[in-house]
Amino acid sequence: MEFKRSSGILLHPTSLPGKYGIGSLGKEVYEFIDFLNDSKQRLWQICPLGPTGFGDSPYQCFSAFAGNPLLIDLETLKEEGLLLEEELNLEEGFDHDYVDYGRVINFKFDLYRSAFQRFNSIASEAEKSKFEAYCQNNIEWLEDYTLFMALKDNFNGRPWTEWDEEIKFREDSAMDKYKEELKDTIEFHKFMQYLFFKQWTAVKDYANEKDIKIVGDIPIFVAFDSADAWSNPEIFYFDENLNPTKVAGVPPDFFSETGQLWGNPLYNWEKLKERNYDWWIKRFEVILDQADILRLDHFRGFAAYWAVPAGEDTAINGQWESGPGADLFNVLRDKLGKLPIIAEDLGIITEDVEELRDQFEFPGMKILQFAFETDESNEYLPRNYPENSVVYTGTHDNDTTLGWFLNSDTKVKENVEKFLNIEASNICWGLIEAAWSSVSVFAIAPLQDVLELGSEARFNTPGAPAGNWQWRYKKEMLTEDVKNKLKKLTDKHRNMN
C-alpha cells in the first residue's frame, strides 16, 4: 500500500495521564489526539491493545482479539449512569508516574462489576440491543475468550494446562457444564469487551476525523496461557498432553547475549495452510477495525523463526525453521486486499526476509539509536534509507534517546556528532530532526524523546523480569513550547498540509 509522507508519536494508552492509576480512553486520550493534531502529527502508534497477563506485557495477552479492560474509562461510565460519583472517590491517590498494575486491577474490576450490575438493571432496551448485537457480531472469538476468562477466574488464575482434564481438553460435556455454571461471569467479560470496543471505536473515529491514523501492532506469536492456544490447540506444536514441544525466541542479538526466550507456542503452519490460514484472516479482520496501519511484529518470523526446544533455560539452543513466507500474505491479500503493513524487520535479517518484505512492498523499520556503532555505511543512518521505510528514534524496547546517549560509550557519542552534527545538549531533538528530515515515508518518535526524558521513562527493557510497561506522562508535560517545536519541525521537514 502506498503511504503518505507523515510523522507521528509512539505512545501506548496505558501511559496517558489520569487519576485512576493507568491511562484510559477518557478525556486525556482526546487531549492527546488534539496535541497530535495541533503539532501536525498524522500518526499515533500504539502497542497491542489486548488484555495483559503475567508481567503486564501487551505482547503477552490472554487473547489476540480482545481489548484490555484496564483501559476502559471510568468517568465515561459515570456519565452513562453506570457508576456513581461516590464510587470513584479515592481514599488514597494513585501514582501519576507509574502504573501499579495489581492495585489498578483490583480497583477497576470492582467498579466494572458494579457497572455490569447497574447495566442489567437500568440500561435501555436500545442499549441492551447494542450489547447483544456486539456479542453476536464477534461471536467467532468472543465466546471462546469469555469462557476462557471465566474459567481462569474459576480456577484461581491458573494457566489452562492446570485446569481439570475434561475442560483443558474442551470435552463437549465439560464445555456445556461450565458455560451454564459460569454464565454470569461469561456475560461480565462480554460486557467489558463491549465497553472497551465502544470506547476505542469512539477514540479511533475522533483521531480519524482529525486526519490522524492509528498505527496498531500485531505480535506474530500469542501467549501460551491464552484463549487462542486453549481454543485452537491444533494450530500449534503441542504434544498429546497439550504441552508445547518447542517455543519461540530469538538467538543472541543486540539486546541479549543469550538471546530472548519468549516461550510462546509455535504455529503449525502446515495445519494453518490446510485451513487456508482462517485464524490469521480473522485476526487481521479484527485488528483492521481497531487500527489504520499495522506494525507486524517480528516480521522475520514469517520467513523463518527461531524454535527452541521446550524446557530450555535460554534461547541459545534453538534452530531456524521455515515460516509460511509469501503463501500467507498472498492469501491475506486475496481475502482482505492490499494490507497497510509496516514490517518490523529488526534483528538477524537474511536475504529471504528482505525478499518477502519487498515482494509485498512493506516498509521496513530503521532505528536511529542503532546507527552509530560502526561507520557511515551503517544501514540505520538516514543517508542510507530507502524511501519505503519507517524511521524511529527508538522503539518501545529501546531506552529513551537521552538515556541511551548518556549510557553510550565515547565512540558512539563521537559518531553522533560526526555523522549528524548533533551536540550532546540537543540529542533528543537532534535525533528527532534527523528522523523527520530523512527520506523515510514515516518518521516516528516515542513521546519520551519529544519530552527529552531519561532512562526513568523507559517503557520496556527486554529480558527484565519486572518494572516494564509502567511509565506514564503527566498532562502538564505537553506544553505549548513542545507543541510548537514539534509543529515547526514538521512544517520544515515532513511537508505536511
UniProtKB/TrEMBL annotation:
Known catalytic reactions: Transfers a segment of a (1->4)-alpha-D-glucan to a new position in an acceptor, which may be glucose or a (1->4)-alpha-D-glucan
GO molecular function, one term: 4-alpha-glucanotransferase activity
Any one biological process term the GO annotation gives: carbohydrate metabolic process
EC category: transferase
Gene3D superfamilies: Glycosidases
UniProt-listed Pfam families: Glyco_hydro_77
Ranges annotated as spanning the membrane: none
Family in the record: Belongs to the disproportionating enzyme family.
Name under which the protein is recorded: 4-alpha-glucanotransferase
